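Model it.
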Amino acid sequence: MPEITASMVKTLRERTGLPMMDCKKALQETGGDEQKAVDWLREQGIKTKETRIGRETSAGRIAVYTDFAKGVGAMIELKCESAPVAGGKDFIQFAADVARQLATGPGAKTAEELLKQPAPGKTGQTLGQVLDDMYNRIREVFTLGRVIRIDGPCGAYAHHDGSAGALVEVKGGNAEAAKDIAMHVVAFKPAAVSKEDLDPADVEKERDILTKAARSEGKPENIIAKMIEGRLKNFFAERVLLEQPFVKDDKQTVAKVAAAAKMEVVRFERWELGKE
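Modeled.
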């Protein structure tokens, strides 16, 4: 067996980020072959991870990536066990890389499919392998949850702590205006893009509630209908994106902001971490 030198261990330590003793053992087990040692360490980590399956992953972050000019946007949910790990630079970078690969690669319908794809900036490694390596260093369970890609111009925004994020598909406009509307979606939590997109049953239910309230106030029947339509504006302003006061200027609606940018809002996706 070739001699396992301190420099060999140091090189493997720098490559994997794992403890010196683990790196030394890996080199001993693989006859000093660095790549085989990397694979051995990864296999040992996978074995350890299998014993932790089922542990709660309540922390994590939502990450987004868009290329407005190319007409693509993506959002992913990456979960872990603790808030300190979720706020660590390795975790944040990996989440960003996953979102980027989803947007710029061939696309993926599931997390499993996405993890088999190449990791941006990691020659010869898949996202899944990078995730395994991160587990080996940090020893927390990681779960790639929801993934979505929109093939169309998008605005995207994720809260600074990764607790929520949104993708907004648009036609026309520009990247900055689209991002502003995505930020609004994260903040105001609309249920639909337009009034027409709301469930008609929900609208009729609200109309019935408002009608009964107006009658209990003793309002004349001949003016109740007009009153109800006026009061429904508040209902729509709470639930409909285009009717809401814009987050950066509440003197105008989102519809007016979009019109000023010559932009049509097609649809949006809004996620909160851990809330399907």
